[in-house]
Write a structure and sequence with these properties.
Elements lengths: L7 H9 L4 H8 L22 H6 L8 H38 L3 H9 L6 H7 L8 E3 L5 H7 L6 E4 L15 H8 L3 E5 L1 H6 L6 E4 H8 L13 E4 L2 H4 L19 E8 L4 E5 L4 E15 L15 H8 L10 E5 L4 E4 L4 E17 L15 H13 L3 H14 L4 H13 L3 H14 L4 H13 L3 H14 L4 H13 L3 H22 L1
Parallel strand pairs: 1-2
Antiparallel strand pairs: 2-10, 3-4, 3-5, 5-6, 6-11, 7-11, 8-9, 8-10, 8-11
């Protein structure tokens, strides 16, 4: 059966309304809801694009020019919004993530897992340095023959390793937790930068390893920023199992008959002042160590007779040095081994918790260790001291003056010059020179000891009182300071203070007796 055809008047009306005969039959088969009804007003929402269509980009479902224009307009607005707001935020966010990742090296991650602390930003800003004029050579490029001919007894070198300390030891056994577990009850010796060198490289304060880690490692000296305790121990390493972890290049191999070992452990701003000795190498397992070096023909400014702590030297002497007097220096990174030829003057400053081991030859083998080189203010002052000890004060005087002229920071030379002026009965110049020494190095207890004696010899107990008081603050465990402080208190009528000082003396003597037993 054929389908019914629409009446002629209906066809004409459809044609007038834009519907042709060719599509009339197809529209007739569709649901009435899908037919266009131009005269029927559509809801406002009907002309808007749905979010799902927008995101899917289904532009083909909208065939009228008006809807396409609306779609393009909304898309443009969204793209502008993304470009100006979302993308910059994401860019900054991912750039930050990338910066953090790229600046967190494998060594840093390994350091954090070790339990030791990295230096804080303030320490790095004040004491860190990019200067390095010590040659760095990879272990892979430093065979024994090259080391012996190019560096042995000639110049320092920093030896680097592809895998850091893991190439010459087992870093995990040097971690805080492993050392604490293995050696917590062992006795270890620590001290401060100046006192360690003053006593010939032997730290005097004994404690258990655990006590050092828990209580002493961050303890700072009164009036200074320098921690009081830096492990500088000559027996701990040799008694431990750590030597079994070493597998060194042949030119660094250890001989028990020829080498002395030193174990180092300290927090930021610990270290040692200038000194020198026989051939040595120093390997840092964790942390960083800033080195200051001078050849054996040039005494470090400030002298090697312990006028400054290492921090005082860096803070007060180093910034005032001319280019001629500046040291050779570098920051030794974890895993590197530094070789120092015999007789090289050196001082160190740790950045972050630093743990290291060094080997020193027991005996000097070169002729470099002579005192009579003209460039050495140290040698000049020693000549003056010898003449002073012989009672030849007038002959001693010009040698001390010459030493100070060579090195204006030579605090110990000022002390000996003041003593020489006093021996020659020029008390005014003596006192002026003592005060100059205190001005140069306010925390050097030697000056207060000598200046106090100078004042007591003149019967000036009132003037000596603050001098000895300062001495007790700098060296609270030193009985002579308390003894003379008590004497000044008695002479000036401070009986209550003298009684307290006497009690302190008794406590110190009792403590010393216990330590000896």
């Amino acid at each position: 059966m054929s389908s019914r055809r629409p009446p002629q008047d209906v066809i004409k009306r459809k044609i007038r309304n834009g519907v042709t005969t060719s599509n009339l039959s197809s529209q007739a088969t569709k649901s009435p809801k899908r037919l266009n009804r131009p005269h029927q007003k559509q809801p406002r929402s009907a002309g808007l694009l749905s979010l799902s269509h927008l995101l899917s980009g289904n532009i083909y479902s909208y065939r009228t020019p008006t809807k396409i224009i609306v779609f393009l307009t909304i898309t443009t607005v969204l793209l502008v919004f993304l470009y100006q707001t979302v993308l910059p935020f994401a860019s900054r966010h991912f750039a930050s993530l990338h910066w953090s990742f790229s600046n967190t090296s494998l060594e840093e991650i390994d350091f954090k897992s070790s339990g030791w602390r990295l230096p804080d930003a303030e320490v790095l800003q004040k004491y860190g340095s990019d200067i390095c004029n010590i040659e760095r050579v990879s272990f892979n490029n430093l065979p024994e023959a090259r080391f012996e001919t190019e560096f042995r007894f000639k110049k320092p070198v920093l030896v680097t390793f592809p895998n850091g300390a893991a190439d010459w030891t087992e870093p995990g056994l040097w971690s805080r937790s492993e050392l604490s577990k293995a050696y917590s009850k062992w006795t270890i010796h620590s001290g401060q930068s100046l006192e360690i060198v003053r006593t010939g490289g032997n730290a005097r304060h004994a404690s258990s390893f655990q006590e050092f880690l828990t209580n002493l490692m961050a303890d700072k000296k009164t009036g200074t920023l320098e921690p009081m305790h830096y492990v500088f121990d000559r027996s701990f390493y040799g008694r431990s199992n750590l030597p079994k972890t070493l597998h060194l290049p042949k030119y660094f191999e250890v001989s028990s008959s020829e080498d002395d070992s030193v174990f180092f452990l300290g927090s930021s701003m610990t270290g040692v002042v200038f000194h020198k000795h026989s051939d040595t190498w120093n390997g840092v397992v964790y942390g960083s160590k800033r080195w200051f070096l001078y050849p054996n023909t040039k005494t470090p400014p400030g002298g090697v007779h312990h006028g400054f702590s290492v921090l005082e030297w860096v803070d007060h002497v180093y910034p005032n040095l001319t280019d001629v007097d500046k040291p050779i220096e570098c920051v030794q990174q974890p895993g590197e081994i530094l070789y120092l030829p015999e007789g090289t003057y050196h001082a160190t400053l740790n950045l972050g918790d630093t743990i290291a081991v060094a080997m020193q030859k027991k005996n000097a083998v070169t002729k470099a260790e002579l005192l009579s080189y003209e460039e050495s203010s140290e040698a000049v002052m020693k000549i003056g001291r010898v003449l002073y000890d012989l009672g030849k004060y007038s002959q001693s005087l010009p040698w001390h003056i010459r030493a100070i002229k060579m090195d204006p920071f030579f605090v110990v030379a000022y002390i000996h010059l003041a003593k020489t002026f006093s021996a020659l009965r020029d008390y005014k110049k003596a006192e002026t020179t003592f005060k100059k020494a205190i001005q140069l190095s306010p925390n050097l207890w030697d000056t207060y000891k000598e200046y106090g004696e100078f004042l007591l010899k003149q019967g000036r107990h009132q003037d000596a009182l603050p001098v000895y008081k300062k001495g007790t603050e700098l060296m609270p465990d030193m009985v002579p300071f308390w003894f003379y402080y008590k004497l000044c208190q008695l002479q000036t009528g401070d009986l209550e203070g003298a009684e307290k000082s006497e009690k302190m003396i008794a406590d110190l003597k009792a403590r010393t007796q216990i330590e000896r037993n």
